[in-house]
Amino acid sequence: MFNNFNNKEHDPSSGRAILRDIIPKARKQKGPPPQAPAKIPVFKKPPSLYWSAGAVLVFTLAVFLLDNFSYALVTITPRQEFVEINSGLRASSGGLSDLPLEVITFEEIISKTGAAATLKKIEERSRGRVVIFNAFSSAPQKLVAGTRLETPGGRIYRLTSEVTVPGAKVEDGKIVPQGTEVEVAADRAGEEYNLGLSDFTIPGFKGTPKFEKFYGRSQTELTGGFVGTAPVVSDADVKNLTAAAQNEFASALESKIKTDLPEGVFMPEGAWELKTAVESVAPPVGARGEQVTVKVKGTLKALAVRERDFFGFLGRSYLSVRSPEEISIVNFSELSVRAAGKDFEARTLNLSVKGRAHFVWEFDEENLKNDLIAAGDRQTAFTNYGAIERAQIEFKPFFWRIFPKDPSRIRVEKILKTP
Fold first, then answer.
1. Most CB atoms within 10 A, among 32, 302, 324, 331?
2. What phi, psi does 290 have (nearest 5°)?
3. SS3 category, 407
4. Residue 10: predicted pLDDT
5. What is the Cα–Cα distance from 388 to 77, expressed in whole angstroms?
6. Mean pLDDT (whole number) for 337-345
7. Residue 4: helix, strand or coil by DSSP?
8. pTM (global) more than 0.70
9. Which residues on adjacent β-strands are paired with residue 55?
């Protein structure tokens, strides 16, 4: 051991042993290198599983969309005929006739205002309403037409008609005056007699006990007094405004009756009658006024026929259509259907019908849809409908061959022939 120490190298300057000689170097161990910690394996889905799930989802969605948005298109060519019509027929609201008739009435009031065109020199008196009171006795008092009433300012007005003023009442020992209302007019024409509310005395009772006990009080202001040249309402003004109202009625009520008629009912051309009557004129004829307003009442009576009755009669007449077959004329608006004679009192109408009619047999679309859903052989379902001449079923989209169970997903289209 000491020999080993003595054999070691020493520091030449100090004679001390060098440290590396005292602590020997660590020897490198031989063997395999250390291994890293083992990793936990992670499971990965095969790519094919994602594709399968996506395909199932897409397929399910496609089936859902097709099943809910696909539809069947049923194209129908109904029985049809083109016939030249030149016929007359009679309709009435009762009794034997070709067609039943309906009478429809419309009423409306129109006001028309226009300028009074006639100038005239006029003299007018103020007018108004006054209440005459009796505080004299319980006996009634008669006053004749023309009895004077006087204002505190000395203006004279006269009763326009005879009046009887009732007697006073006695309540709790006190006299309670009683009165009656009457129209009065100024003694003279002119604006100076226009008057606001005022009290009146009766000059005819002056010098008697009645003078203080009979008196008048205004119920309205007294107006209308005038002397000079001014426009006045004339018969011509009223006639012109009435004529304008009649013209307006003729267009407005005819348009109204066509739009307000019940569904499936029509009014033949000329099958109506308009009557007008003047309801009021203000101011009245002969009165002063720059403008006049006329209210006119219009009454429009129309004779109407149901389309089904009309189509059925022509179908039976020209095509021997039998009940319960239903038929329509699809170009009905192109025919001339006019009133050849009418009687509103008897409620009868003679019609003239001309034109080339396009008759089409009708069928119940909803019943047809339900029959197609229930039928095993859908082509044979059409044989129960005599109104159908030809039919074809198409699926939309074309590759979806499942017939719908919901009638709303069955669309029916009609094919109309051309002449």
1. 302
2. -75, -30
3. helix
4. 47
5. 6
6. 94
7. helix
8. no
9. none
Let me know: does 301 contact 272? Beta carbons within 8 Å. Answer: yes
For residue 56, how far is the Cα from the chain centroid? 54
150, amino acid identity: E
Question: Ramachandran region of residue 31, left (φ > 0), alpha (ψ -120 to 50) or beta?
Answer: left
Structure tokens at 95: 């009794």
d(CA 28, CA 25): 9
Confidence category of residue 197, pLDDT binned at 50, 70, 90: very high
The burial class, CB within 10 Å (0-12 / 13-18 / 19+), for 200 is buried
Can you give the pLDDT at residue 19?
41
Type and span of the H or E element at 366: helix 365-374
How many other C-beta atoms can be found within 10 angstroms of the C-beta atom of residue 419?
6
| Mean pLDDT of the region 369-385 | 89
The whole-angstrom separation of Cα 196 and Cα 386 is 87
The mean of the pLDDT values for the chain is 86
Bond from prior residue into 324 cis (ω within 30 degrees of 0): yes
Q: How many CB atoms lie within 10 A of CB 180?
A: 16
Q: Exposure string (b/e) for 102-133, b if CB count within 10 Å is 16 or more?
A: bebebeeebebeeebeeeeebebbbbbebbbb
User: Distance (Å, rounded) from C-alpha 230 to C-alpha 119?
Assistant: 5
pLDDT score of 21: 42
Q: Which residues contact 23 (CB under 8 A, 6 or more apart)?
A: none
Q: Using the 8-state DSSP alphabet, how is residue 402 labeled?
A: P
Peptide bond before 283: cis, by omega within 30 degrees of 0?
yes
Q: Which residue has the tokens 């009794």?
A: 95
- Contacts for 319 with CB less than 8 Å, ≥ 6 apart: 81, 83, 327, 359
What is residue 54's predicted lDDT score, i.e. its pLDDT?
66
3-class state of residue 375 by DSSP? coil
What is the radius of gyration, based on Cα positions, of the chain? Answer: 54
Whether residue 359 contacts residue 80, with contact meaning beta carbons closer than 8 Å, is answered with: yes
Tell me the C-alpha distance between 9 and 15, whole Å.
9
Place of tokens 């499971």: 43
| Distance of alpha carbon 343 from alpha carbon 301, whole angstroms | 11
